[in-house]
Amino acid sequence: MKSKTFKKTVSLILALLLVLGGFDGLAVSLIRNNAAGTGAYASPAGSTGPTGRLSGPDEEGKTPHPTKDFVKDMVEGRKELKEKRTQNSKTFMDNKGKKSQLIFADRVHFKGQSGRWEDIDNTVTELNQGSPRAAGMSAFKYINSANDYSAMFSGNGTPSVAFGYKGTRMTFSPEGANDSIPLVEGNAVLYPGIFEGTDLEYRVLNSRLKEDIILNKYTGKTSFAFSIKTEGLNLVQEGSVIPGPAQPVQDNPVGQQ
Description:
single chain, 257 residues, mainly beta, seven-stranded antiparallel sheet, 3 helices
């Protein structure tokens, strides 16, 4: 197991704009405006609302920014021919026997243990500590529902995330961060107040884990260091991806600023 620290530097231009123009909450607004049209994820009907508690009085009213589940909307009420599935397509038959196919830019299925294509479900739920997926991961409380990669999130203390894929794992957390209890909604996990005026949010997507450092106000802090531990992976200085087509990666690849 290796451990290295890398810095993620926020642009000084953004910091200057925050000072001169009163751009408080700029990052939050950008995320809110883009959330509905970014990526796709499959989730069951009746998704739960925000869970968890806020980390302090300054965090009142904050909510996560889940991605809209447009795949579910497109297939609802249609008869799918599951045997015709591919990684990024679904085939349907209407009541007259006519077939139609939806092809997506991103994958919507993953190969389950049976070898069949299963629906990806990025909804973040509480981790069942008695399940095989939870083995050795007692420090984590939440997990994505169904995919060939796992994304686990801590439930209290310093925010921590574990990203696992095919026997490999990367665990990372912001150094020096305040304790934060996450807010969870749909495919989004928000850690409010990790630093003064700063939140940390993750969104589970079909092929990647999206990370956003949200600046609610300018505080002078322009860089953030993360402690990273790996299992079965070698960290490199100039980018790190999992090889192969349409396979999961984490945004802001390790080693990139």
